[in-house]
Structure formats: C-alpha cells, structure tokens
C-alpha cells in the first residue's frame, strides 16, 4: 500500500464516493495505517465539515466501516472516533440533512448498539445530538425508542440469562442488515474485508468465535441435563395420577400430596422453560450456520476464481519465459566474432586519462 501522508489522505477523502468498493478500499488503507489514527480521524472530521451535505453520510459509512473492521487489530480507531462523533452528529443535524440521511444514521447507531460498539449511554448521547431537530411523527425512530420497542416485543427466556442474544436472528426482514465478508485487492494486496455499512446487501454471517461460543453453550443445554431429567423420572407417580385422589383419607394426606404436586409443577415449569429457550437457541444456531456456510461458499468461490486468475497469469509468464530463452538461444555468440581491433590497444578509460595529466 502507498505510504501515509496527510495530503494523500485529504485527496482520498475528496475522491471518496458512496460505492461499496470506494468505501472498502479507503477503509482498508486507513486500517493499514492505523498508527496514524489520531491524524486520520482529525482530518476525517475536518473534511466532513467541509463536505457537501449529500456526502456527509458517505463519510459516516466510512467511519462505521473503519470502526468495526479495525476492532480485531486494536481499539485505536474506536476510541479516537468516540472523541469526535458527538460533534459530528451535531454538525450533521445542523447542516439541514434530508430525512433519509437521518434515518440511515439512526440505523448505524442501532447497529452500534446491537453489536456493543459503544456503550448504551454514548449511543443515547449520539442519538440525542442527531435527532435534535423537530421531526414529524413517524419520520424517524430514534435509537432509544427503537431499542425500547424491541425490548417490549421480546420475551426473555427465564433460565438462559447468561446467553448472549444474537443480532439478526430475531429481527424483521426490514431490520436485518448486511455484514458480508469478501476478498478484495487494494493496491496489489489481497485482503479479506467484512462489509458492515448498513446500506449494503442483507445477510449477517457470524464470526467464527461467536459461532464456537454458541455451540459450546449448547453442550450444557437443558436436554443434556441428566440430573434434572433423573429428578423428573423419579417424581412420585401419585403426582400425575388422578386415581391417587381417591386414596386420600384425611386433610394431612391431601396437603402432603398438594406439596408434592406443587414441587413437581415447579420442576417441570423450570425445565420446560429451559427446553423452550434451548429450542430458540438451536433455531438461532441453525440460522447462523446457514449464514456462515453461505459466506464460506462465497469466499471459496472467490478464492477459486482468484486462484484461476493467478494460474492463468503464471501460465502467461511461463510462456514469456520460454520465448525469452528461445530468443536468447538465437542471439549470436560474441566470443566467435572476428577481432575488429586489428591488434590495437584498447582506448584508455576516463581514469587513465586523468592519470596521464598528472
């Protein structure tokens, strides 16, 4: 990749366009030069302020791509952008953006909230700055209201509180956004890039670590809990047989049976809730596996295509190599040429001429 200069960064930001390729290419270049994160973010904010209103959203898509794709290599960009984002959202809100721009930025904030990119308090602060203008009802759903609505619609399983909810598994089709990995080439260097900007195609393949964690958690699922299943199997038969009521002779016996029934109901309710939660988790895992498999198939197809391209290139280079060798073999051997100097001494070198004068 080309070396980093501030003037070079300004030029690239001026050339930035809303296309996926343009955002990805510049994002990879910035992440590659992450040791300059401070000057990069400062320059980014300065150029965003100068940019026309229609281009400010593209700057935000770039920031979103850099923040999320740089997390694996270090937190530098996330922390540095955090120092500017509040001012950035205030600036955009005051620049008279269209409603669709505000809506797209709210989608970015929703994604940051769902993926834990920034703390919820920060997301609320950013959302407040962005949505400070008076809007007609229903034109924009701020992040806090959106999260509140989702929480009201979602019933949390009673006994799987340690589970981490998977983004994208319980969303409506309109809310589910893309996070697609692909191999792209930047200045001759091939890298795998995860597309995270919310304006890109749908599909949310999980990270391998996330997939592994879900599978490991399911190893301790309700269906594999032999202790509880044994307790259920050993419940006294009278708690599930109506005929036992006919054998009750006094109130004390009835009270004892009632206690046994209540205990059995509690055990079964808790276990059934865990099984229902496990079913949801397995459905989510099925979706994650499908998305992960689809992504791997796409990456495989891209790798095969790339391999074929370079094999073809190697074949062409070998053909050139063969032609060069044939050409070299057809050149005359200068050692067999006749002596054209006639026995004369060779001309003196430049060094010899200077030595003669001295």
Q: What's the layout of helices and strands?
A:
Layout: H1 6-15, H2 20-32, H3 37-50, H4 53-69, H5 76-94, H6 99-115, H7 120-130, H8 143-153, E1 180-186, E2 189-195, H9 208-218, H10 226-233, H11 251-330, H12 350-357
Antiparallel strand pairs: 1-2
Helix pairs in contact: 1-3, 2-4, 3-5, 4-5, 4-6, 5-7, 6-7, 9-11
Keywords:
mainly alpha; about 350 residues
Commentary on this structure:
The protein has 358 residues and is mainly alpha-helical. The chain is 61% helix and 4% strand. Residues 134-141, 144-179, 184-190 and 197-203 have low confidence and may be disordered.
Task: Note the total helix count.
Answer: 12
The side-by-side strand order for the widest beta sheet comes to 1-2
Overall pLDDT level: 78
Largest sheet: 2 strands, antiparallel
What does the radius of gyration come to?
34 Å
Order of helices and strands: HHHHHHHHEEHHHH
Approximately what portion of the residues adopt beta-strand conformation? under 5%
Write down the overall geometry. elongated
Number of strands: 2
Which ranges are low-confidence, i.e. pLDDT below 50, for 5 or more consecutive residues?
Answer: 134-141, 144-179, 184-190, 197-203
Query: Percent helix among the residues?
Result: 55-70%
Coarse structural class: mainly alpha
Q: Outline of this structure?
A:
This protein has 358 residues and is mostly helical. Helices cover 61% and strands 4% of the residues. The chain has twelve helices and two strands.
